[in-house]
Every structure is written in C-alpha cells, then in structure tokens.
Amino acid sequence: MAYSDKRVFVSLADVKEHLSSNGESGEPWQIPSMPSPLPDAVLPSFLHGLNASLLRDVKNALQAATEPSAAAFEQLAMLHHKLHYLLLLERGAMTRPQQAGCGLGTWLTCQQGALGFGWLSHPTSLQLEQWAVDPGAVPEGTQWHFKALQRGETVYFGPGTVYFLITLPGRDSLALAVAGHVLRRCDLVRYAEVLLQQVQAAADRFKHSKMSTPPPLPFPTESGILSVLASSVTEKLAELAVTAGKSHREDEYGGHFAIKKFQSNVVRVRELIAEVTSPRTVMKREII
Q1: Sheet strand arrangement including 174-182
Q2: Which residues does residue 119 pair with via DSSP β-bridges, in sequence order?
Q3: The last residue of a domain, from among 182, 205, 226
C-alpha cells in the first residue's frame, strides 16, 4: 500500500462542511489531532498515578512561572494539546505506520465507531533504525499485531511504538477517539532514546538530500514541542533529581544513572538540531 505525506491544515468549519457532505468530496479524511474541549480528567484511570504525571508536572511548572511570557503561553498551549486531543478517521481511512509524537507514551479511547490498532511487535534496534530511514517500508523479519477497539475501549502504547490505525466495517461512517500523551517516570531513558533516533534520522536525510533548507523534524508540525520538552523536562528533572537524591527516591525515575543517561541523550538531541538548522549548514547546502 502506498502512503502520502501530504498534510493540509483545516479549520473546524472545514471539517463540519466535509462531514455534512457525507464524505462525497474524495478520499476519506484522516484528522489525527484536533483540539479537545474536554478537561484533563479524561485521562484513563490507570494513568492517574505518580508514575505517569511528569508531563502534567511540567505543565504545572510552566503555569507557576513568576513572569509568564508569550513564549511560555505558547509552550503551555502545546503541552495542553499533547495531554489530550481528538482523532477522527472516516470509513476507509488508514494511517501510515508511525511513531507516537516526540517519544511520548500514548493512550487512545474509542468513542464512536470501531478502530483497528496495529503495532510492530518487539522490533530490534536495527529494525527500528531501518524503519526510521524509510517509514513507508516494513523491515524484514518484523511482525505486526492487531487489536480491534470498540466504543469505550482504551489502548496504551509506550515511547517508540510503531503503529497504525484503520477504520473497521460497521454502521458508523467514521471513527472518533479521544487520545493523549503521557510521560512516565519509568520511561525517561526510552523517551530520550526515541527523540535521539528520530532527530538523527532527520539529520541524516538532510545531509544526503539536495534540499537547501532543513526538512521538518520527524514530528510533523511539532518541532516546537520538542524544544519545550527537551528544555522544560530537563530543568524539571534537575530539580527532582536533587530532591529525590536527598529523600532516597531516585528509583522513581529509574535510578541515578538513568537520570544521567536521559540528560546526556537530550544534550545530544539539542546538538543535532543546532547542527542541522545552523546558518552555516544551510549556506553550505545552498552552495552545493
């Protein structure tokens, strides 16, 4: 099956007009991320504990800023959107295999219709690297697993999971889900590893391409959230690490060495972004 990377930004009015036409305007629509009017309480109950609260902790830290700026408000809006959003697929729609945005964990609850959730089961590091180079291909030797989600059913998948969604046959003309991201304390190292892999793949594609400007980072329309997470989470971790060390609670974050590894990977992520987007790199590309 061929997949398209074409993305078009639409307004809620566009969505309403399209749905009123009963989908007669061409290919079925996929709307992977719409602002949700729902409160944070929609988070599944099994993610209400301390372990899964780090992303909300970062949001609270930004809100508590003594002198909030326009940039801080923008960061808050990004983080709020990552906590939960709406996802809509019309009958016949199928997403391409992808990784959850920015290395975060993802939960998804089907609200209307039926959704098929497929995921790559236990891929090796080499297979993930091969997939990152060509997301439209399926690495040799990998296996897909599949779960049908009915109304009210929820699935959670951790950082780096390669997955796809597809609508299933039924009476409904579309499938609607509430979804969101979390950052679990026990996933900090994996989170940073996924960020590093994705940014490295984007940097490699740029180096071997003829583009004169850097390509979008591997999280479409989400390059801003990367810097927010990398900086805000790192700062929050620095505070938490000191407190956890004094109270012997470093194990909540995987231990002292896990925290250090996380911070080291985030530093490398920042270096790669600076390398790809620096004026010298772009100028060199234009000369070539």
Answers
A1: 30-35, 85-90, 174-182, 105-112, 154-157
A2: 145, 163
A3: 182
Domain assignment of residue 57, given as a range: 12-182
Q: How confident is the model at residue 18 (pLDDT cuts 50, 70, 90)?
A: confident
- Dig out the tokens for 249 from the structure: 């609670």
Residue 1: inside a domain, yes or no? no
pLDDT in tens, 20-78: 776 556 778 888 888 887 776 678 888 888 888 888 877 777 777 656 666 667 767 77
The CATH number that applies at residue 151 is 2.60.120.10
CB 190 within 8 A of CB 102: no
Are residues 249 and 111 part of one domain?
A: no
Q: What is the pLDDT of residues 176-228, one digit of tens each?
A: 999 998 888 888 888 888 878 877 777 776 676 655 555 555 443 344 555 55
d(CA 51, CA 61): 17
Tokens of 44: 């599944």
| Residue 2, domain member (yes or no) | no
Cβ atoms within 10 Å of 6's Cβ, excluding its own? 5
- What are 143's strand-pairing partners? 121
